[in-house]
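Quick start: read one record
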Amino acid sequence: MHTTILVTGATGTVGREVIKQLSMLEDDIRVRAGVHSVITGENLKRLPGVEISEMDFENPESLHAAFTHADKLLMIAPFTDDQVTMEKTLVDEAKRTGVKHIVKLSSMGADEEPGILLGRWHREIERYIEDSGINYTFLRPTSFMQNFIEYDAGSIKQEGRFYQPTGEGKVCYVDARDIAAVGVEALLGEGHEGKIYDITGPEALSNYDVAQLMSEVTGKQVEYVDVPEPAAREAMLAQHVPAWMADALLELYGVYRNGNGSQATDTVAQLTGRQPHTMRQFLQDHQEDFS
């Protein structure tokens, strides 16, 4: 009998990679990509065994359709001011329709007290899932390597520089491909119910280290510029980032600046049987994004 897996946030960095990896597996896996609009999920249709389901949180019927006959849920939600409400709605629908297992993408340090806003929100949702009675697995990664593409590639190409307020703080950046691989194992493997997995890359790097690796891989000089927090906030507001989000991101950058994301774990190796990607491997694979 086949297993139907619903992936929300399917067009995001991790969701897209999870669907790609699931689509390459055996025929008894059916993958349903939950997207905000069918147009945004167009590229996912090309993957074998993937169906697209539009999910509009203001349209309960669209949620009912997405969850129909879904056995498992990989739950990813965007960082928005209604994230907690959105994810609780997903949990309620999962419970109503008999989903057997929720794998939630959370964040490293979600259970720290008092923690930062992003962590508190994730922990609130984690508790809601725990109280639902549905089997669960929580994935808590550090910062994605792919964020350097999404947020910094433009200035790297144009100026040979990227800007962040993280000082000399070191982070075990993790490749989204490795987060996805752990997620796939949690969905399809045995014994992952009730587990929380901290997911990191293999090495703690400062942004000065990352800039040096970028220079070596691309063959052009790349410089990291440490930005004071007030200037970083001003720049985000100028780019129309909401004030609450700018403050939340500065909290997260502060965690990294203080070195609190620098502890490596062996989760990827233990659950996938291979070592996680290094930053150098990631940059080599995506060299064209920075050159």
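Residues 91 and 276 are 30 Å apart (CA to CA).
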